Please model this.
Amino acid sequence: MSQGRIVEAATPGAIEEAAEIIRNGGLVAFPTETVYGLGADACNPLAVARIFEVKRRPRIDPLIVHVARPESALRYAELLDPRAQLLMKRFWPGPLTLVSRKTDAVPPIVTAGLDTVAVRMPAHPAALALIEASATAIAAPSANPFGYVSPTEARHVQENLGEQIDLILDGGRCPVGVESTVLSLAGSRPCILRAGGVIPAEIEDLIGAVDWETRREQSPQAPGQMERHYATHTPLEILPEENDRAVPAPAERVGLLTLEPPDCPGCYTAVEVLSERRNLREAAANLFAALRRLDGLGLDRIVAHPVPEEGLGLAIMDRLRRCAAGSAGDHPGASADRSRGEKHDR
Model:
């Protein structure tokens, strides 16, 4: 079998082939509605260890356990809180991860030794079919080197991880484009640990007010809590509101990431417009692919106009701030390979 090859998920036999790899302790990259995941049998500690090795992911950063049915989640998490039942009924399948006390079915490596586990049911037919066919839950972070921009297309996975994984299921472009919202029900009050594909206001409409704790550099309680994350190799700067139309010096090669078309597109080496219609859902779906394109141009820096912090704009700005904190090649997933005359080969 050729490693790292891409197979369309709709191809006859593709799901079963991928499921056999999972059952045998291998790694499969697969599509979800949020981003592509790098999956292994959640009950196989050796298989899960390969995820950390391939991604170069710190062992202190827990993984999400993906299930195909709400009732399956109860095998791995003590989701007995009535609010959990309301949330699963409303948002599953979908981009909401719930954190609760774990059961003994979950190996400690999955949870980074914590007594809680993060569980979700993805809303992508290929992901659900793979989990069902594998007859186990699948532990999966995003399918990219740790700290780098998340993949939203199968080719992004192949470019980043190449022959280090066994198979890449191609289910098309991820429609949400940012990771799931992570909500903890393990404490006395519900707490958002990561902004994502489910808007916080929708959660509060269902279960009441929630707390926020989205940054935890030491001992993160959920994926995506580290300050430096989702980062480009090219330095990225978020322009301040009062200076969000500033233009670069003539000698600089600067790329612009912007929600809407800029006043002076010719002032930049490259421009990525996230949504001509100023639609934040469209912008979120385009975010990571746009960052990757800019990052592949050998630019001196990337500047980003802030977006309104409402709805999915909360998740977009969360990713941009972490990208700005971890860009310039100093994050753990940065590659030293600067071949083909570019800043990187991602």
Notes: The longest strand covers residues 96-101. Residues 280-295 form the longest helix (16 residues).
